[in-house]
């Protein structure tokens, strides 16, 4: 069960705004965290605390295939990303690095609210607004990858894909 | 019931025949990563316990995103990829050879009917060849380098039929910008886009690649262009959809009345006829990227600029998509025309498209660009505005210093055939 405070942004947050291209050429996670969401909200990286939840509207993570986008979010301390919908490469990348992503088509979550998220059942409770939402079900292969902490561990464990 | 092109190609690479919505584990024909995604790919590959590649012949690494290295940090990442390529024996394209997507097609690493993954979001470009190609992140790519396989959900398909004859001076870029505007930035998320119709029957490979390239800006997983009349320099087999294939959406667009299209800041789908943006002052014009920096694009710009000089208030930057293209443009005089007009040449690579080096705009500047994305900060400065268009519009705008319809420059001289 994940519990955390939300930081809410709008629709179509693209990967350039999650982590600008000029900062992506590094393997240093702290460098990525240092510039996360820089062009969208320069204060975010100072406000964010470990375990916080990032919330967005439609099409979160649209744009490039840079895995640095979910990595930067994860390295900044975010425990889970909730959005009305996700761009497909971002969604896959997040699961692959072990960052949970939760798709709730009709959420009305606001800034600073406390959420409780049960990744197993997909039940999301908005503790502040006393509302509950049901997240969209993920394919089993993604659940397996996430349960093993990401695709690197999954493949270390199984050597190849187990089947779908 | 019949199958779409994508269902056919994926079925060929899976254990059984598949339909939209099925999950499948598939054999991958080839993969590529760049200096932007390669370092994380190699790290993930090693972390997975990877030692040997599943098939070195099917793996390519390309230095194109930040080339030549602007600082020692990036230089060291380049070195990491060079070393990996030497050890593993995979294909390697060093600084200046060109943009990944151009090199994959030009060198035959991807062919019609293939299932190809690139660690770059514009990998659907190979759909110009009627291949299934999708962009993935570094870890997904590393998994293919290890196993030769990936998992995917078979996408539904949007069928787009383009009818009518495109007016003279308009290009595949105007068409795809128009369609991105119509379908929307997320209108094809998780889906495949199939392009067909008389309006694109005679398109060159380069123009077909322009169409497929920008399905990324609709959120699509892949895009495929009907292979009718596709001409290639090797033997290949065409894949066509069945007549009774099932499409999620089927739309027909008549392009015979199309005007030049421009995407305004800060979304590639903020598209309208050039009239809306006409007259907007620009300070930088860029012809480059995996969308529009092939020979026909440079020639198109040369037609507009021949014997003229760009405005004193404008920098015109040109980065050809590959060394081969640069050499061809040298040989046929295109480079001379552009250089005489005042163009500054950059090496073949991504450069200004992604804001890693070269052509970073100043605060408040406006850029007209032949690239595919105009997100805020895309070119390295969040306080700049990027407009997207065809190379012809970029060239015409460089000439006047404001966003300009090339038809106005050519002043009734619609003979676009003459260079
Ligand atoms: S040219 Fe631009 S869009 Fe194309 S691969 Fe390079 S950075 Fe990406």
Highlighted features:
heterodimer, A: 164 residues, alpha/beta, Aconitase, domain 4, seven-stranded mixed sheet, 7 strands, 19% strand, B: 419 residues, Aconitase, domain 3, 2 domains, five-stranded parallel sheet, 28% helix, 18% strand, globular, binds iron/sulfur cluster
Measure the end-to-end span of chain A: 26 Å
Beta-strand proportion of chain A = 15-25%
Number of strands of chain B: 18
Largest sheet of chain A: 7 strands, mixed
Q: What is the CATH superfamily classification of the largest domain in chain B? A: Aconitase, domain 3
| Helix content, binned percent of chain A | 25-40%
How many discrete domains of chain B? 2
Instruction: Briefly note the CATH topology name of chain A.
Output: Aconitase, domain 4
Mean pLDDT of chain B: 96
| Class by SSE composition of chain B | alpha/beta
Report on this model:
- By secondary structure, chain A is of the alpha/beta class.
- Chain A has a single domain (2-137), classed as Aconitase, domain 4.
- Helices cover 28% and strands 19% of the residues of chain A.
- Chain A has helices at 15-18, 29-33, 44-47, 68-75, 88-96, 140-147, 151-158; strands at residues 2-8, 53-56, 80-83, 101-103, 114-118, 123-126, 131-134.
- A seven-stranded mixed beta sheet of chain A has the order 4-3-2-1-5-6-7.
- Chain B is an alpha/beta fold.
- Chain B has two domains: 1-258, Aconitase, domain 3 (2-Layer Sandwich), CATH 3.30.499.10; 264-409, 2-Layer Sandwich (Aconitase, domain 3), CATH 3.30.499.
- Chain B contains twelve helices and 18 strands.
- In chain B, the strands form five sheets. A five-stranded parallel beta sheet of chain B has the order 4-3-2-5-6, with helices on both faces. A five-stranded parallel beta sheet of chain B has the order 16-15-14-17-18. Chain B has a four-stranded parallel beta sheet with strand order 10-9-8-11, covered by helices on one side.
- In chain B, helix 2 (38-47) links the parallel strand 2 (30-34) and strand 3 (59-62).
- In chain B, helix 2 (38-47) crosses helix 5 and helix 6 runs parallel beside helix 7.
- The mean pLDDT of chain B is 96.
- Classes of the chains: A alpha/beta (164), B alpha/beta (419).
- At the A-B interface, helix 5 and helix 7 of A face strand 1, helix 2, helix 3, helix 5 and strand 7 of B.
- The complex binds iron/sulfur cluster (SF4).
- Residues 65, 99-101, 120, 122, 289-290, 350, 353-354, 371-372 of chain B line the site of iron/sulfur cluster.
């Amino acid at each position: 069960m994940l519990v955390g405070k939300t930081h809410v942004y709008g629709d179509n947050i693209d990967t350039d705004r999650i982590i600008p291209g000029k900062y992506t050429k590094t393997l240093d996670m702290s460098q990525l965290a240092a510039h996360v969401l820089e062009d969208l909200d320069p204060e975010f990286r100072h406000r964010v605390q470990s375990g916080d939840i990032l919330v967005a509207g439609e099409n979160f993570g649209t744009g490039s295939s840079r895995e640095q986008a979910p990595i930067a979010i994860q390295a900044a301390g975010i425990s889970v990303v909730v959005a009305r919908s996700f761009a497909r490469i971002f969604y896959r990348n997040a699961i692959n690095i072990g960052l949970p992503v939760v798709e709730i088509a009709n959420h009305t979550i606001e800034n600073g609210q406390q959420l409780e998220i049960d990744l197993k059942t997909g039940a999301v409770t908005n503790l502040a607004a006393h509302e509950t939402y049901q997240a969209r079900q993920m394919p089993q292969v993604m659940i397996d990858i996430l349960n093993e902490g990401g695709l690197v561990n999954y493949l270390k464990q199984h050597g190849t894909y187990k089947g779908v | 019931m019949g199958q779409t092109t994508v269902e056919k190609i994926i079925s060929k690479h899976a254990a059984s025949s598949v339909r939209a919505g099925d999950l499948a584990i598939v054999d991958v024909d080839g993969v590529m990563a760049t200096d932007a995604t390669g370092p994380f790919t190699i790290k993930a590959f090693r972390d997975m316990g990877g030692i040997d590649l599943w098939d070195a012949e099917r793996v390519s690494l390309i230095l194109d995103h930040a080339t030549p290295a602007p600082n020692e940090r990036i230089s060291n990442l380049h070195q990491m990829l060079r070393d990996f390529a030497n050890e593993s024996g995979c294909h390697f394209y060093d600084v200046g050879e060109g943009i990944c997507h151009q090199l994959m097609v030009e060198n035959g690493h991807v062919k019609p009917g293939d299932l190809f993954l690139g660690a770059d979001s514009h990998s659907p470009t190979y759909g110009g060849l009627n291949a299934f190609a999708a962009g993935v992140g570094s870890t997904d790519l590393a998994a293919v380098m290890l196993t030769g396989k990936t998992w995917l959900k078979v996408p539904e398909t949007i069928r787009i039929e383009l009818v009518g004859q495109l007016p003279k001076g308009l290009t595949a870029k105007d068409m795809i910008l128009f369609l991105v505007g119509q379908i929307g930035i997320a209108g094809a998320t998780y889906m495949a886009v199939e392009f067909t119709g008389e309006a694109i029957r005679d398109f060159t490979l380069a123009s077909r690649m322009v169409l497929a390239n920008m399905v990324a800006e609709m959120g699509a997983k892949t895009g495929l262009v009907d292979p009718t009349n596709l001409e290639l320099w090797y033997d290949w087999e065409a894949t066509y959809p069945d007549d009774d294939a099932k499409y999620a959406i089927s739309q027909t667009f008549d392009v015979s009345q199309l005007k030049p299209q421009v995407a305004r800041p800060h979304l590639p789908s903020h598209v309208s006829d050039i009239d809306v943006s006409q007259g907007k002052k620009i300070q930088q014009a860029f012809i480059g990227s995996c969308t529009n920096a092939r020979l026909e694009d440079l020639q198109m710009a040369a037609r507009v600029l021949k014997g003229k000089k760009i405005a004193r208030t404008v920098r015109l930057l040109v980065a050809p998509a590959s060394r081969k293209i640069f050499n061809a443009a040298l040989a046929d005089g295109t480079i001379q025309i552009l250089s005489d007009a005042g163009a500054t040449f950059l090496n073949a690579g991504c450069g200004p498209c992604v804001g890693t080096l070269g052509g970073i705009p100043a605060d408040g500047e406006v850029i007209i660009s032949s690239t595919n994305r105009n997100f805020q900060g895309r070119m390295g400065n969040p306080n700049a505005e990027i407009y997207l268009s065809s190379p012809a519009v970029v060239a015409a705008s460089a000439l006047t210093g404001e966003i300009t319809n090339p038809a106005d420059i050519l002043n009734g001289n619609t003979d676009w055939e003459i260079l």
